[in-house]
User: Which sequence fits this backbone?
């Protein structure tokens, strides 16, 4: 039921490539990935649409998935890949889709490091951290890990 | 609101919250409550830690290699739980590793509750539950749980269960495994001095405290002198000079009077030992600049009324006059002490922090003081310890800056020089320095 090979614009080809490389077409929708996904413990609005299974299904239907904000909820852990009986690498798929979204500047949810400018987190993840840290937003959350370490060196060495 | 209720609210059917229970990781592994056991808290202060000295480090990377040999497959620096970052231009090196925080952020944010703090104070990642999402590294101010860029695994220092390999192999002794300073002697010095000053001023001198004469030598409360001048509208040189010694000593040594000699301050310090639970005072009561207002008002009031207006209600003076041995009952003066001391249920030393005009006058002198207390950035453990912020009676150690990983600069006009921070810092980071000395690298003095 994929629509992919039929249309052939740039975006479709790229998304198709990402899905093929990550093995997304092998998904049997068993739901083991949903059971282990840490997003279920992070977001109260976790639902079928943003679980690995639902997201993968949506990605197979339409390349417009890269504009979906829920793409940026994923923490790129490896839980789903490790448990998948078919060897689908959801992490690679999400990484690839994020890259396509960045190239096309459709990624308004991502956060860049305020010092070096690389993409280090997303709005949802920072919101989750802020929420967990007793509603306090600290400046260091806007830095990528390596910039944080460099800041420590400048301050203390 | 817990995750379950929130989720029920988010999942609605026909405008009604969906019923049922959504299992989350917290249900299976409940998060531990903060430990209120007194003995454990003391043990926590003494927990052994790796201390790093950036001056000695040569950036050789031996610590990374031995550490990665513990973490299993390939022995490469990137799979270690300690990372040496190098600034080649200035020849600076710094090691990033887990500081085993007192209240770790990584435990709070881990969605799968895979990080635990053991009884021995070591924070460990449970490999069975960890899915390498990297949120702990995102939440750590130092990004100390390291994400291996090759395998994607998250590694975190567990102190090798008490015998760290990196310390054993560091050839320059830049990494030291220590339990921190054990003997705290300033405390043993301050309490007797405070007690002696209290007995001397309240029981023996009693009331003559505000102006103390010994032969031709005279010492007076500087605020009393100012009010005297304002009320009589003439300047008597002898009494004016009597205010100088205390002001001069404050310029030289900070507001040590407040921390070591003030009998009312001693009384508040004693109260602090008794109070179990503190309330939060409303914001308008917690303005530090209010004391300068009280100072101006007391001098202006004396000028208008023609007598020393503030001295009649001064907590220090009334404590000496009304609660001495000879004058057990002295009318309204008895009521002032409990009234002012009741502010103490809000913050420690509330009166001294926000209102005391004597302190305000000394603060003006301390502003141009010669010495300062600094928190040395190199030795300070910042967010992982925060002992100084807990112990400071004036609350001038900025918690937020410590969490951000900055050793805060202390405002000397607010500091009462009780030296609790110097005494309690396990790593000897807090020191007394001259005004013109640097506290951290690259600091503008």
Assistant:
């Amino acid at each position: 039921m994929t629509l992919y090979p039929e249309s052939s614009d740039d975006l479709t080809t790229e998304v198709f490539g990402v899905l093929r490389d990550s093995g997304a077409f092998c998904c049997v929708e068993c739901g083991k990935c949903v059971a282990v996904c840490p997003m279920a413990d992070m977001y109260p609005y976790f639902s079928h649409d943003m679980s690995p299974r639902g997201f993968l299904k949506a990605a197979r239907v339409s390349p417009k998935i890269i504009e979906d904000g829920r793409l940026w909820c994923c923490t790129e852990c490896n839980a789903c890949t490790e448990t998948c009986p078919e060897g689908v690498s959801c992490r690679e798929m999400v990484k690839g889709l994020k890259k396509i979204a960045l190239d096309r500047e459709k990624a308004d949810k991502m956060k860049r490091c305020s010092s070096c400018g690389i993409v280090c987190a997303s709005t949802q993840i920072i919101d989750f951290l802020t929420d967990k840290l007793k509603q306090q937003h600290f400046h260091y959350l806007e830095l990528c890990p390596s910039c944080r370490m460099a800041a420590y060196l400048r301050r203390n060495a | 609101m817990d995750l379950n209720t929130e989720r029920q609210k988010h999942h609605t059917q026909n405008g009604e919250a969906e019923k049922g229970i959504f299992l989350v990781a917290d249900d299976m592994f409940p998060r531990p409550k903060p430990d209120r056991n007194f003995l454990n808290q003391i043990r926590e202060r003494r927990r052994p830690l790796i201390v790093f000295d950036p001056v000695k480090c040569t950036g050789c990377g031996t610590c990374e290699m031995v550490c990665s040999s513990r973490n299993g497959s390939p022995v490469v620096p990137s799979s270690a739980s300690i990372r040496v970052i190098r600034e080649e231009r200035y020849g600076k090196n710094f090691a990033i590793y887990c500081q085993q925080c007192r209240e770790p952020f990584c435990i709070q944010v881990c969605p799968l509750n895979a990080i635990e703090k053991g009884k021995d104070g070591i924070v460990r990642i449970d490999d069975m539950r960890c899915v390498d999402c990297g949120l702990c590294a995102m939440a750590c101010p130092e990004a100390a749980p390291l994400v291996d860029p090759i395998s994607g695994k998250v590694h975190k220092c567990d102190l090798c269960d008490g015998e760290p390999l990196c310390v054993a192999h560091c050839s320059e002794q830049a990494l030291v495994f220590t339990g921190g300073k054990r003997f705290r002697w300033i405390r043993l010095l301050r309490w007797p001095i405070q007690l002696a000053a209290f007995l001397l001023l309240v029981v023996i001198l009693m009331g003559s405290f505000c102006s103390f004469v010994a032969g031709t030598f005279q010492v007076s409360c500087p605020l009393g002198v100012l009010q005297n001048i304002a009320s009589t509208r003439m300047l008597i040189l002898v009494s004016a000079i009597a205010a100088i010694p205390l002001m001069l000593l404050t310029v030289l040594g900070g507001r040590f009077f407040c921390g070591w000699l003030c009998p009312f301050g001693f009384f508040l310090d004693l109260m602090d030992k008794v109070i179990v639970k503190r309330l939060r005072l409303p914001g308008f009561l917690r303005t530090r600049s209010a004391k300068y207002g009280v100072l101006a008002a007391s001098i202006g009031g004396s000028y208008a009324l023609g007598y020393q207006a503030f001295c009649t209600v001064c907590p220090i003076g009334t404590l000496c006059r009304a609660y001495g041995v000879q004058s057990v009952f002295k009318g309204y003066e008895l009521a002032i002490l409990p009234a002012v001391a009741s502010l103490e249920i809000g913050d420690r030393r509330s009166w001294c922090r926000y209102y005391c005009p004597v302190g305000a006058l000394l603060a003006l002198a301390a502003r141009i003081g010669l010495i300062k207390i600094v928190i040395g950035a190199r030795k300070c453990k910042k967010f992982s310890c925060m002992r100084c912020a807990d112990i400071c009676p004036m609350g001038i150690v900025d918690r937020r800056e410590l969490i951000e990983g900055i050793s805060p600069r202390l405002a000397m006009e607010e500091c009462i020089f009780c030296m609790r921070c110097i005494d309690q810092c396990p790593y000897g980071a807090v020191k007394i320095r001259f005004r013109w000395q640097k506290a951290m690298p690259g600091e503008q003095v």
Q: What stands out?
A: Chain B has four domains: 1-26, 31-178, 186-367, 371-434. Chain B has 21 helices and 14 strands.
